[in-house]
Design goal:
The chain contains five helices and no strands. By secondary structure, the protein is mostly helical. It has one domain: 434 Repressor (Amino-terminal Domain) (Orthogonal Bundle), CATH 1.10.260. The chain is elongated and about 50 Å long.
């Protein structure tokens, strides 16, 4: 059995226009999750630490970081503030 790298596999999968379109739809959620995870780790915070500082609960942070949430802008702003960041949105 031939072994291929994740990047090679991903490149092959993205040739499927339908799959690519679906991934593009959810990309903003995963970008937000990547940013929150990165900032939380950079600040040496656990999900619980971040939740306390943002006045929310750890499961909320977990769902956002896993891409399984549809958080309100107010929640994202509280998390941003807890991470020392300002939230900005843009339409493209």
């Amino acid at each position: 059995m031939e072994t291929i790298s994740w990047n090679e596999h991903k490149k092959e999968m993205l040739k499927d226009a339908k799959l690519r379109k679906e991934l593009e739809k959810i990309e903003p959620e995963f970008e937000l999750a990547r940013q929150i995870i990165g900032l939380r780790i950079k600040n040496k915070m656990s999900q619980t630490d971040l939740a306390k500082k943002a006045n929310t609960r750890q499961p909320v942070i977990s769902r956002i970081e896993s891409g399984n949430a549809n958080p309100r802008l107010q929640t994202i702003e509280k998390i941003g503030k807890a991470l020392g960041k300002k939230v900005s949105l843009r339409l493209t």
